[in-house]
Every structure is written in structure tokens, then in C-alpha cells.
Description:
Blueprint lengths: L2 H8 L8 E5 L11 H5 L2 E5 L3 H17 L8 E6 L12
Parallel strand pairs: 1-3, 2-3
Amino acid sequence: MSLWIDRILSEFPSDLAQLWVAADPGGVLLDEQMSLLRESGFEALPFEDSVAFRAESEERYREAWYRNEQGPSRSLVLRSRKRARSIYLRVV
């Protein structure tokens, strides 16, 4: 495994939070080598359409988390192809 993959993976401790936001303009989280992220309990869900993301995340994750269940994975990464300064997220 390369040093840059190790560096990225070290930023995602799965016991810290259930929902993560990652600005990924280069599509690094789509790389096949990032399957290690999934093996660590994360799923990266693309944020291309806010309505589609909300529907999928609430149906697959939020309901389970409210019931104190794990859901499809321990943590969900909202992956945006936009740069960090252009991401606006409102959690309700």
C-alpha cells in the first residue's frame, strides 16, 4: 500500500463519528485501492444530488442509527467532488 493511501485512511477512525464529509475533487475515494476504507467499516456515498443523497442516507442509515443499530456500515462518508470551500451541509 502506498504512503498516500495510508495517510488518507489514517484520517478516518471509524469509532469517532457515523457521518463524515469528504471533499474529493480528484475522485480519490473512488480508487479501487480505497476498498480498505470499506473494510474498515466505511461506505462512501456520492453527494451529487442533495435530494437523492438524503433519501438514500435516511433510508439506509439514519433509521438504523436512531434505533442504535449499525446499518449497512458503521460510518458513512458523504463524498463530494466539489472543493471544501464550496460544500454547504445542513444537518437536521
